[in-house]
Amino acid sequence: MTERAADFEWRGEGEEAEILLYAPGPAVAEASLERALSAARLPGAVSPIYVAASATPSNFGWVAASETHAAPDLVSAPEWGLLIVAETPVESSRLEEVPRLISRGLSEVVLPSVEEAEVRKLVGSGGLWAAEEGFIEEEDLPSLYALPGDADALSRRALSAGTRDWTRPGDIRALRVAEILDPDGAGELGLETGSLAITVGVQAEDLGRLSMASHRDRISARLSSGSFGDPGDFPAAPVETEEARDLVFAANATTNYAAGRAALVLYAIRRALREAGTLDLRAAWKIGGFEERNGRALHRNGLAAVVAREAFVAGQTVAAGTGGMLGSAPPFEASAEVSEEGGRWPWEESGILARWAVLELL
Fold it and tell me: What is the pTM of this model?
């Protein structure tokens, strides 16, 4: 049962922690509370568990902090989002051609294959590996930073999958900047009305899925043997154990692999759209995975890791985090009925992000 706390904000009780939920309406909030109860079972959970959900079932996520445990089922496999912007305006008459040029250009760009040895390097350094190989520029590196990952924390099956999935293109959308809502924020990203903007979403594919599955099995086996005390039915490992450390290293390695794939997509788009001039990487954000902060393990599922005034794209909106929800924000649009209701957007109204610009698909 949820209790309304403010506009677009509800509270509910979980097993180990309270849940603070942001949603467009009470029906979505009530249904989402049921989905979030698993996160509130996390041992050592710190109240509240932050949850965001829209009327679209796939638009759902949480961030849960624990002082004592790490749980593989409570994180989504890490992925990266990119915002790429043309440095100089593209003639409006040419903008409509961009989707076709991207499709044709990507089919003509030859992407390098990788063997297991390269995948092992990738999961340790991500964007740095791509820069050393000449796929991205040095100025792109701060956006595609590497986390402390360890290839030895990944199974052979996961590493092998990494060689197969390396050149998958991800989700690419060509857009134009339709409206500037915050001139200062948009100016930081070099956005102008009519500018060409390209968004990219890149997952870790089977490498990420297999990595999380293998560590879940390992932790479940230890629980069943009684090594972690009362096994219960919730796979979580104490943070001081080797199992928990390896789980976090594996998630970080998965994040680095996705960053390397994102760098490759950036390289391919720049080559495919040479006619559009210089394409700058203006923002990059990671979704899902773990973060260690102040002695706590942060579990992100479907939410982007963004601090105050750090830019990302939510649906077709360029937004910035406000620092709320443990430095997290929902990278998805509000439900249609709310966004059309006087233009109110739950994530902005509840103060968990700020809108900088509106994009429209070409």
Answer: 0.92
